[in-house]
Write a structure and sequence with these properties.
The protein has about 120 residues and is mostly helical. The chain contains five helices and no strands. The protein has helices spanning about 1-25, 35-55, 60-75, 80-90, 95-120. The chain is globular. The N and C termini lie far apart (about 35 Å).
Length: about 120
């Protein structure tokens, strides 16, 4: 039960922060979902930092990892919104934005995780 509560609390904070960043950065005029992109890249960097630190130093408890990685990062990042935004691009025939957004999200997201894992070496 404690594990569920930790994931719930972390996910709640992550979801609220994702909502705020999305409202701030998503642009309804040009339809480019910068907020989702930024959130997913930052979340990838954060989970790399958190899990890299946990592995390197054996310093994070299972509870802290559940709160931060599973809860916060899980609530903060969003694959469902990413998929929906790509659906909108395809439905509107904007194949260029679809391709750029999808490829950039995957490549930069993976690089952010690797960067987080690498940066932990210096902490």
């Amino acid at each position: 039960m404690k594990n569920l509560l930790l994931v719930f609390i972390g996910g709640g904070f992550g979801s609220v922060l994702r909502f705020v960043i999305g409202k701030w950065l998503n642009n309804s005029e040009n339809g480019i979902p910068y907020g989702t992109f930024v959130v997913n890249v930052l979340g990838s960097l954060l989970i790399g930092l958190i899990l890299g630190y946990a592995v390197k130093n054996d310093a994070l408890s299972q509870n802290t990892t559940l709160l931060l990685a599973t809860g916060f990062c899980g609530g903060f990042t969003t694959f469902s919104t990413f998929a929906y935004e790509n659906h909108i691009f395809l439905k509107s025939g904007d194949f260029t934005s679809f391709a750029i957004y999808t490829i950039a999200s995957f490549i930069i997201g993976f690089l952010a995780v690797f960067a987080g894992m690498y940066l932990v070496k210096f902490i």
